[in-house]
Amino acid sequence: MHEPGSQLIGNTSSAEGQQTFQAFNPQRQEWIPQPFREATAGEIDRAVTLAAAAFNTYKKVAAPQRAAFLRAIADGIVALGDELINTASAESGLPLARLQGERDRTTNQLRLFADLITEGSWVNARIDSGTPDVRQLQLPLGVAGVFGASNFPLAFSVAGGDTAAALAAGCTVVCKAHPAHPHTSHLVAAVIGKAAQSTGMPEGVFSLLHGATVATGQQLAVHPLLSAIAFTGSFRGGKALYETATRRAVPIPVFAEMGSVNPVFFLPGILKEKGEALAGQFLQSLTMGVGQFCTNPGLFITQTGSEVFMETLLKNIAASPAGCMLTPGILDAYNKGLQQLQQAGAQVLGKAQEAAQQAAPALLQVSAQQALDDPALCHEVFGPSSLHIKANSTEELYRLAAALEGQLTATIHGTEDDLRQHAGLVDILREKAGRIVINGFPTGVAVNHAMVHGGPWPATTPAAGTSVGTAAIYRFCRPVCYQDFPAYLLPPELHNDNPLDIWRLVNGRFSKDMLS
Amino acid sequence: MHEPGSQLIGNTSSAEGQQTFQAFNPQRQEWIPQPFREATAGEIDRAVTLAAAAFNTYKKVAAPQRAAFLRAIADGIVALGDELINTASAESGLPLARLQGERDRTTNQLRLFADLITEGSWVNARIDSGTPDVRQLQLPLGVAGVFGASNFPLAFSVAGGDTAAALAAGCTVVCKAHPAHPHTSHLVAAVIGKAAQSTGMPEGVFSLLHGATVATGQQLAVHPLLSAIAFTGSFRGGKALYETATRRAVPIPVFAEMGSVNPVFFLPGILKEKGEALAGQFLQSLTMGVGQFCTNPGLFITQTGSEVFMETLLKNIAASPAGCMLTPGILDAYNKGLQQLQQAGAQVLGKAQEAAQQAAPALLQVSAQQALDDPALCHEVFGPSSLHIKANSTEELYRLAAALEGQLTATIHGTEDDLRQHAGLVDILREKAGRIVINGFPTGVAVNHAMVHGGPWPATTPAAGTSVGTAAIYRFCRPVCYQDFPAYLLPPELHNDNPLDIWRLVNGRFSKDMLS
């Protein structure tokens, strides 16, 4: 007998719901016994209402204390040790080593945001000390609804980048766990709850809700006290949330990262120089993690000189292992996506050996004309497949680039000669993607200050931003300005004597100076 | 005989439309003879298509050249001299002195943005020089659709803040002129066209479209090559554009400034100290420009000690002159708004003497309970009226503040004792408004670096930003990052040697240093 898993609303476990769901172990192909309760409408309301009350306290917690909270979460995640890794692996089918890496990324992200807010300049303080005296800084939006992603059960989930950025900004968080990994989510949420208590944060600064139905997420999205939504997942899921949020009586911003085909352009010179090596690297990027990255290269475009490259690719893909995907639903969608591509006229160039309940890496191909005629051919198929297009000229290569939808990333491989001869390609791709990579591969997203993980629709909803890196914090803020305030009512970031020693734009000039 | 006014599409005048409209002189109460043609669907398409083509060139124009373009526009506006002021006055009923001030603001804004992009640090360059090497900056979105506002025929219209910010960012602009001032719009558009030619900008960097119907604006908003919309006007108009833009196949951001009631809180101590003086200042802020400012104080809240203040107000408002509004439609909406307030239970405390075709300043009142029960009482009535609410306790004052919708501004008048005793009020209001003013009045928006003219819905659509001040430029940008780029493909802002001498966030540290 297993007592069904419950919601964590503030410091309280809540078990109102009668509807339950189970996680699935995709490696063992079996349901994990313990069920989880679907959150009820009442529980969703309680979580958001508590988060809104907590916000009134949390927004005034000084940055060093918020940072201590984030660091305590990181420490708690580390302290979970193998239990967390094993649980996440059972629920996702992801290998232990990959999850250990993802855990490191998760804790590093939390610490990076802790460092960012401890340093403090991120608030973009601006002071114009004329008449009137006007002082601006970034303030948190309120309660953020964070939707966990299936493909990063740690780094884009309960204590992932969105939660870290929102909590760092001063928002409180109600997280909707991804139903594929409720046990993992529960473990991490319990850590956050303990960290909140040990560092003196208000109850409700974080709550976790479970749910396997669309209705649960939608109920969260329409709650009047919610101020923003962060989501990583499918185009369909992200678009549904976007539509809901923009049609509310009071619309709220949705920061949905909805994936991308991440086109890779291989220019002629470099293919001639190192076609074989590039084929190996490309296939590694394509099949890594069974192709389940938002930045997986699902489209690649060559022009001339691709013979050795393509031969090597086809030889190697046949020998690639099939792999276990995150959920049966994702595997099913992958196989259906490949079928649809073929029905739309794509030709299968090569495929790994099939294996039961596993995804076989695949290479498909369409002509440039087909791709230009039918943009749906270039839509994402989530998984280890990539579509090849051969351009018949540089002009056609540019036309293919210009016809692309918005992307998280776009990549160009070329020698210096290639790149100089195709400088127009960068010009086109900078309108298409949030990140442009030269002579690398899009998988592997560095978490730092300069990273952009975002891009034009349909890569993300139309709110300029990034969901990876320190700039992700700005999604959860808005600027507020204080006019002619006496010092005792101003936040310290805007005091004349700059007590936090932060960089500020003072009368148009960056400095750490005091105001005289 | 008057040849109807035409669209300005790039360098060409276009006169396809057969449907025409006329502007109205509200002072003289007569139609201005020359009609203007409503833009056709074909003209709208040509303007946006040309702007999209121009963007491919304009986005690569170096900042000093873009700055020269902005300055040439400012010079051209000055050179229009009295013709511009007289034309704008005839179409808006605004006094010459007010329009001279607005012209100065308009040209100052253009020059401020020119200075901003010449200095260059605004691009928020971020460099992480590890492995991978990742470098980020803000890039322009594409073609911006700018909708001119009725109440600022210069500063929020054809060459107003939105156009200045968009052109500064590197976007091209298709402007939909407000139909209340087409002649003024035409004069300014011609200046922009000449400035574009004299400074070597690509044709189509700016186009002007006329239209008095909703359809024209909607056709612009759905054009597939449009990337963003900026709007200043009514809640109804802004919301319609927001809905259209978010329901496109590819949604685009809408930065709509939709107005606000701009609540003013008068605390007990200061009312006792200087109730009479405050009454005079408040009435001046309320009636200035016949109350036709987005930041007009349409709501004021007192607690105790308001007797002298209210008496003075009532005495003075009776003696206030009625004034000419921008259009007959706006006057009509003002009078209907006052009627609706009364039907909803508001009591008229005092009103200026009525005059034919003019708006009489008015003060109305509801009880705190009425306001809490019926939030519609606190909706904007555009014009020189303000609604008074008396709170029966500090707790009720806080409840009234917490019940407010999103605002552009919120203002508190208080002595130091008042303010310290009501510190919770700032806490509430910072969630409600983009700008909080202490002991001042919300009308009069400084154009500088720290200003925020924006706020939570329904003050603006939910995209954090400001439509006044240099931070307005970020509405027209998104971050793009370059990974492992060779120097010859990087924009100069991201070169190791920092040739533009801008502030950058290099490995997390602000500096102007070169990278070694």
Question: What does this entry look like structurally?
Answer:
Two copies of one chain form a homodimer. By secondary structure, chain A is an alpha/beta fold. Chain A has 14 helices and 23 strands. Chain A has helices at 41-58, 63-92, 96-119, 161-169, 182-198, 214-221, 235-246, 268-287, 307-318, 328-343, 368-373, 394-402, 416-421, 423-429, and strands spanning 7-9, 12-14, 20-21, 24-25, 30-31, 36-37, 126-128, 134-140, 143-147, 172-176, 206-209, 226-232, 254-257, 264-266, 299-302, 347-351, 362-367, 385-390, 407-413, 433-438, 477-483, 504-506, 509-511. Chain A has a seven-stranded mixed sheet with strand order 16-17-18-15-14-19-20, sandwiched between helices. In chain A, α11 links the parallel β17 and β18 (385-390). In chain A, α3 (96-119) runs parallel beside α4 and α8 runs parallel beside α9 (307-318). The longest helix of chain A has 30 residues, at 63-92. The radius of gyration of chain A is 24 Å and the shape is globular. The model of chain A has no long low-confidence stretch (mean pLDDT 96). The interface between A and B is large, with 76 and 76 residues. β20 of chain A pairs parallel with β21 of chain B, so a sheet runs across the interface.
Task: Outline the secondary-structure elements.
Two copies of one chain form a homodimer.
Chain A: E1 7-9, E2 12-14, E3 20-21, E4 24-25, E5 30-31, E6 36-37, H1 41-58, H2 63-92, H3 96-119, E7 126-128, E8 134-140, E9 143-147, H4 161-169, E10 172-176, H5 182-198, E11 206-209, H6 214-221, E12 226-232, H7 235-246, E13 254-257, E14 264-266, H8 268-287, E15 299-302, H9 307-318, H10 328-343, E16 347-351, E17 362-367, H11 368-373, E18 385-390, H12 394-402, E19 407-413, H13 416-421, H14 423-429, E20 433-438, E21 477-483, E22 504-506, E23 509-511
Parallel strand pairs in A: 7-22, 9-10, 9-12, 10-11, 12-13, 14-15, 14-19, 15-18, 17-18, 19-20
Antiparallel strand pairs in A: 1-2, 3-6, 4-5, 7-8, 8-21, 16-17, 22-23
Helix pairs in contact in A: 2-3, 2-5, 3-4, 8-9, 12-14
